[in-house]
Design a protein that fits this description.
This protein is mostly helical. The protein has one domain. Helices cover 80% and strands 0% of the residues. It has 21 helices and no strands. Helix 2 runs parallel beside helix 6, helix 2 runs antiparallel to helix 11 and helix 14 packs parallel to helix 19. The longest helix has 37 residues. It is globular and about 75 Å long.
């Protein structure tokens, strides 16, 4: 098998596992959002969405860029047959991250009242209570993020898929459901946050088990990668928190500048985008260590093959969602209850931006895995500046639509800039035959067909159901007809031969690297 073929098969296996995890996570998160909007008032839902967004922003800040740094350096060690240093990389990352997490948690706990006064007008006390509870679990989130990043660096997607994408959201849904039905909205913060504790413990155990099975760890006093590690991870720290800020700060600003009811509407509407982002993250996480290996070998042919195939898969699973939301947003928003359909225009603006972003593939990850973390940071800061400026300008007068315009502008800018850079400097781009086929098929089935059916007497829910049935049949025919240029044969082959896969080629789906010195 060629190098490109080997990497593509491994990416397919990791993508399938992560897609399953993303499906579980997406559905669970969506059901959780419905439960919160249906079982609490809009103001209470706004507090929940704003508080959880602030928690995720705080945990991202505390990662210090190590989530990408660990993948980059440990996957590079695999390519160089130096996995004996994996523990050293974790030791370099873990102490600063855990110290930062504790300090951030203490800071949020101590400043809960001022934060509530600033970000939650009218519900200051409830918001402050939420933040005090969530602050206690910031170290748990930090531990979980460290462990999962390191396991991805070792080459397995199982820990991330099972723990982060399945176990944690399912446990959160269960605990929040019990809290809402048996206790009340005031207990939701405990229920949602407590899920991090058991998952973090299991995640750390999983990492240490995989590490020791991969290769005997050594303590080499001459091996001092601290400077290189933090030179790479440092820019990623600011870039990572800025990326999360672009996804979460809007909800916080909408609550502070336009009211908690508007924050509830915006938070519910953007849950749909989270479904697509989870799928994108699943594919990205699968190919990230493979990009690290290919680029460490300076194998740009393999990297290009991976980039284009992964982008085609990404379009196939996300464009249908975004096109359906553009065409039937009002019908879908009705799931959350009365008063949420006012977010329709904002939803259309954001979904349109996501169509362009998805067509660029995981371009930011490509740039980072090529070692250009400073370029990535610069791009993100430019996009965030535009996002924040438009938010502050437009949210007071246009509410959720103003927030959507700001985020959409940042999404477009945050993809076009790195796309031009990887194309110019590394001659990498996502626009292959499979990518163009994927775009055309999605537009035909989920864009043209629904528009055509609107010319019939069908209306409302009936129109939506018929459109989905016809589009689904046409899409299935399209996938079968163009399965070769879309590289779907690789995915099908993986499903058929999963149990018979050679142990040495099953790195991404095996529970751990097998034996000492194991390499892909």
């Amino acid at each position: 098998m060629t190098t490109s073929g080997d990497s593509l098969h491994r990416a397919a296996r990791g993508s399938l596992l992560n897609l399953l995890g993303s499906l579980v996570s997406g559905i669970t998160t969506f059901v959780l959002t419905i439960a919160v909007t249906r079982l609490s008032s809009q103001s209470e839902a706004g507090v929940f969405f704003s508080a959880t967004s602030l928690f995720l922003l705080a945990t991202s800040l505390g990662q210090l860029g190590t989530n990408t740094g660990l993948v980059y350096f440990i996957s590079g060690s695999r390519a160089r047959r130096e996995l004996r240093h994996a523990k050293t990389y974790m030791r370099i990352a873990a102490l600063p991250v855990l110290v930062a997490a504790v300090l951030i948690g203490l800071g949020v706990f101590a400043l809960a009242d001022p934060i509530g006064n600033l970000l939650s007008p009218g519900e200051e006390e409830q918001f402050a209570g939420y933040m005090r509870v969530m602050a206690m679990f910031v170290p748990c989130a930090a531990l979980l993020n460290l462990a999962l990043a390191a396991t991805r660096g070792l080459g397995t997607m199982q820990a991330t898929a099972i723990l982060d994408q399945m176990a944690k959201p399912l446990l959160q849904l269960l605990l929040v459901g019990v809290a809402l039905t048996a206790i009340g909205p005031g207990a939701v913060s405990w229920a949602w946050s407590a899920a991090y504790l058991p998952v973090a413990v299991v995640g750390w155990w999983w990492w240490t088990r995989l590490r020791d099975r991969a290769e005997t760890q050594v303590s080499d006093p001459t091996f001092r990668p601290q400077r290189a590690f933090w030179r790479f991870s440092g820019p990623r720290a600011l870039a990572g928190v800025t990326q999360v800020a672009m996804q979460r700060l809007d909800i916080i600003l909408v609550g502070a500048l336009a009211g908690l009811q508007a924050a509830a509407v915006y938070g519910a509407a953007t849950r749909f985008l989270a479904l697509g982002q989870m799928v994108a993250r699943a594919v990205s996480l699968s190919v990230q260590p493979l990009f690290g290996e290919s680029l460490a070998r300076r194998d740009f042919t393999d990297a290009q093959h991976l980039y284009q195939a992964a982008t085609a898969w990404l379009i196939l699973v996300t464009w249908p969602l975004y096109l359906v939301l553009i065409g039937f947003g009002e019908t879908v928003l009705g799931i959350f209850g009365d008063g949420y359909s006012v977010g329709l225009t904002a939803l259309i603006v954001l979904c349109s931006a996501m169509l362009l972003a998805t067509a660029c593939g995981m371009v930011n990850m490509v740039l980072v895995m090529a070692g250009k973390s400073f370029w990535n940071l610069t791009n993100i800061l430019v996009a965030f500046t535009v996002n924040l400026g438009l938010d502050l300008l437009l949210i007071p007068s246009h509410g959720v639509l103003g927030a959507a315009i700001g985020w959409a502008a940042a999404i477009v800018l945050g993809n076009i800039l790195p796309l031009s850079q990887v194309a110019h400097w590394f001659r990498l781009h996502p626009f292959g035959r499979g990518t163009t086929h994927a775009m055309g098929g999605c537009l035909l089935a989920f864009g043209v067909v629904p528009v055509g059916l609107r010319m019939t007497p069908l209306e409302g829910t009936t129109l939506f159901i018929v459109s989905m049935v016809v589009a689904g049949i046409l899409y299935a025919v399209f996938l079968g007809t163009f399965r070769r240029p879309l590289q779907l044969a690789v995915l099908i082959n993986v499903l058929r031969n999963r149990r018979r896969a050679r142990r040495g080629d099953d790195l991404l789906t095996s529970d751990a690297p097998r034996g000492r010195g194991y390499q892909s």
